[in-house]
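Input chain follows. Return structure tokens only.
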Amino acid sequence: MLQIKSFTFNPFMENTFLLFDETKEAVILDPGCYEKAEKETLKNFISKEGLNIKYLINTHCHIDHVLGNAYIKRQYNVPLLMHKNEVVVLKSVSSYASNYGFPAYEETEPDKFIDENDQIEFGNMTLKIKFVPGHAPGHLIFYNLDSNICIAGDTLFQGSIGRTDLPGGDHLTLLNAIKTEMFTLPETMTIYPGHGPETNIGFEKINNPFVGERAKF
């Protein structure tokens, strides 16, 4: 059975996700931990549960989602997986990290590129992938049909969508990707976004003011 543990880290209130099952194999998605206390919180939970971290995954590479990349790679000796279109986004972080109050940010390099034709396997679990650009050029989401969950990054939020005014963003591209990719998922599927509380596909298809049936154009 898939279990999800979420942590809210850094001043952007970013959601970091740890997924694991009964085998104790696990993956970490979007580690936003920057301060020592945040890293210790994540490390202590992993130790307490006896988890074996298999992969580090970025849905996309904006600063708030990658602050803990170097720490996770070093601490658990795991590969970093991401879409190839996010390389330029990741490399740019070091140029502005200090301006955002993160002078100790450490650069990292991806170890493997993944896309929507791949699957992430750990323990008895399989995460399927959809390509949902618009907030970021290489944004991926990860879902498991049996557990009815989706790790959505900064694509679809409760009552909102990801911002598209950052470099590589495009509003119409994101709207289209949500409608054609995310809205094909089961309506009961729980969405775990990169910020804020969970929601579900069915609710957003009706109520989301940007992409739902009640959206005003």
